[in-house]
Specification:
The chain has eight helices and seven strands, in the order H-H-E-H-H-E-E-H-E-E-H-H-E-E-H.
Length: 279
């Protein structure tokens, strides 16, 4: 007697998810929405549409940017879950990376009215062992959180210090602060971060964990919040470190700066509208 075959249900794992197919489907739809928004903006401008119609298209564009951000965060989280082993770490000059971040200060000031400052503490070189993609993602989200917390006229400071055992990277803002204490503080924090999926800090912690770094978020000394990243000192044990082969240093630096700028441009599109700090 022929036995009926039974399908054995297998536990769903992160590796079983077709990440590339999910990514293609999401960004195909986002691209279609974006192209239609551009068409509608141009069409409405030609026909002299009313303010309500123009605002509707603007709202669709802003919502699309937020959705794209959330999808990117989810895909990053999924990629971390799928990774079987921690990343291979290479020597990286943290000072150079922070310079590329600080180079976007003019764009940040023009779009948000927030001042971005960089303080090396006198250091010109800071070699650490890191995964560059993880560090860029970490810096982007910490900077984004700080910018979101600030109102127009606010300041975000990036500070780099060194002790006998570690480097300390601090991203400090004078914005709304942590949602603790008064009801007013909670409401201001909620207003600043409304619409987010609250994945950014989780990704930051995972980036640090993968590289053996530390991360704490605390109240700033005077006002606002600071994220403190602790990075082990890089010590040469006498062996030549593995290096990544790439194009010339100048070309590579330009490519990295362009990539960071493009990431920040997309992030700025999701920022809430700024209000007068004296309101």
């Amino acid at each position: 007697m022929e036995q009926a075959q039974q399908n054995t249900a297998q536990e769903l794992t992160a590796q079983a998810i077709p990440q590339q197919a999910v990514e293609d489907a999401c960004f195909h739809s986002l691209g279609l929405i974006g192209r239609n928004c551009e068409y509608l903006e141009q069409h409405l401008a030609r026909v002299g549409a009313d303010a309500q119609s123009l605002q509707a298209v603007s709202d669709i564009s802003a919502a699309t940017a937020k959705l794209e951000r959330t999808i990117n965060e989810l895909l990053s989280a999924l990629e971390f879950l799928r990774a079987g082993q921690p990343p291979k770490l290479y020597p990286l000059d943290l000072c150079e990376l922070l310079q590329q971040v600080a180079a976007q200060a003019d764009m940040v000031r023009a779009q948000l009215g927030v001042t971005l400052e960089l303080d090396y503490g006198g250091w010109t070189t800071c070699r650490v062992l890191a995964d560059r993609d993880d560090v860029e993602l970490l810096c982007l989200h910490l900077l984004s959180n700080a910018l979101r917390a600030c109102r127009e006229g606010g300041t975000v400071r990036i500070l780099l210090r060194r002790s006998e055992t570690m480097w300390q990277l601090t991203v400090r803002d004078n914005g709304c602060g942590l949602p603790e204490g008064s009801q007013e503080a909670w409401l201001e924090n909620r207003r600043s971060f409304l619409g987010g999926a609250q994945l950014g800090l989780l990704l930051c912690r995972e980036c640090c964990r993968r590289m053996g770094w530390g991360l704490s978020v605390e109240c700033a000394p005077e006002k606002g919040t600071q994220a403190v990243v602790t990075v082990p000192l890089y010590t040469d044990d006498g062996r030549a470190p593995e290096v990544e082969l790439h194009a010339g240093a100048d070309l590579a630096a330009e490519q990295h700066q362009y990539q960071l700028r493009a990431m920040l441009v997309r992030e700025l599109r999701t920022m809430p509208e700024r209000g007068d700090p004296d309101e």
